Amino acid sequence: MKYLVTGNAGFIGAHVVKKLLERGDSVVGYDVVNDYYDPALKEARLDFQVQAAKKIGVDYAFYREDLADFDAVKKCFAEHKPERVINLAAQAGVRYSLENPHAYVQSNIVGFTNLLEACRNNEVEHLSYASTSSAYGANTSMPYSEHDGANHPLQFYAATKRANELMAHSYSHLYKLPTTGLRFFTVYGPWGRPDMAPFKFTKSIIEGKKIDVFNYGNHSRDFTYIDDIAEGVIRTTDRIARPNPNWDSANPDPASSNAPYKIYNIGNNAPVKLMDFIGAIENAVGKKAELQLLPMQPGDVPDTYADVTDLIKDVDYKPDTSIQDGVSRFVNWYRGFYNV
């Protein structure tokens, strides 16, 4: 199978590509490699993909291009004719969306539009794409279910990802393009993003610096280990979205459609208190954290918790890496990568 994976220099994208290569699929990566965070980390992720492809002996190509450049997207599809597409390219980060919303429009709206057009014009079998648990926004019904509404996002980042779900549905309806949206819950693990809390906490604890703990530590998050996320992405991509024969327009299910369209949560289904997560990092590092307790930030939600009933039912998969194991693996990677 030939896959196009956008955002393959990113945290999740790099792990997904590695898993695809390891099972013998050929992969075309596509990433602009911007400087939103340290490009050296992105280059290192790209390097391990190249090495994995060489070791296994499967085809791998890489386009260093912007998804918002439609000519570049069309050229990539024309040259490689991918059978399936996994879109993990996005301008990520809740905080940054408060500072630079235009970056999110270019990447998450314009870029995604270009990808939808390329998929429908090249008879792609299935488009799966990253969404976010942040789409649930003001919804406080726990655990978050794909079958509940998600129409009140609290940050612009979440609004763009929810827009992707709606845009995908229109293409599924108009052009019968099978699309599957994947709502990820707080992802952490080796090769993680430096702008995310697990990375920041680990770095500051090792360096003996204070860590900012928002909402006075009263958050809980459905922390999900990166390998579990990557496995969920591949399994749901393997299951091509189909119309729901029981879909009722008088009582519409938000997670499916009479078009080939589906939404899944991918989360650990086991929310952890933020202070307990910090405790796991302290244990792995062997050092206590210095805490700076702060109020909740704009756009934050107190808790996240994934209902993964559909994931289990449809693809026989449930993320299950414990916080203790996942954090230990991340800290070991961090020490090795940064030689500390």
Structure characterization notes:
By secondary structure, the protein is α/β, with parallel strands linked by helices. Helix content is 43%, strand content 16%. The strands form four sheets. It has a seven-stranded parallel beta sheet with strand order 3-2-1-4-5-6-11, sandwiched between helices. Helix 6 (156-175) links the parallel strand 5 and strand 6. Helix 5 (101-121) packs parallel to helix 6 (156-175) and helix 9 (274-285) crosses helix 11 (323-338).
Which SSEs are present, and which pair or pack?
Elements lengths: L1 E5 L4 H12 L3 E5 L8 H18 L3 E4 L6 H11 L3 E4 L8 H4 L1 H21 L4 E7 L23 H20 L3 E6 L2 E2 L8 H11 L2 E4 L6 E2 L2 E2 H13 L22 E6 L5 E2 H12 L4 E4 L15 H7 L7 H16 L2
Parallel strand pairs: 1-2, 1-4, 2-3, 4-5, 5-6, 6-11, 7-10, 8-13
Antiparallel strand pairs: 9-12
Shape: globular
Compute the separation of the termini in Å. 40 Å
Mean pLDDT across the residues is 95
Strand content: 15-25%
Order of helices and strands: EHEHEHEHHEHEEHEEEHEEHEHH
Number of strands: 13
Number of discrete helical segments:
11
Strand order of the largest sheet: 3-2-1-4-5-6-11
Largest sheet: 7 strands, parallel
- Return residue spans where pLDDT drops below 50 for at least 5 consecutive residues: none
Radius of gyration: 19 Å
The structure class reads: alpha/beta
Helix content: 40-55%
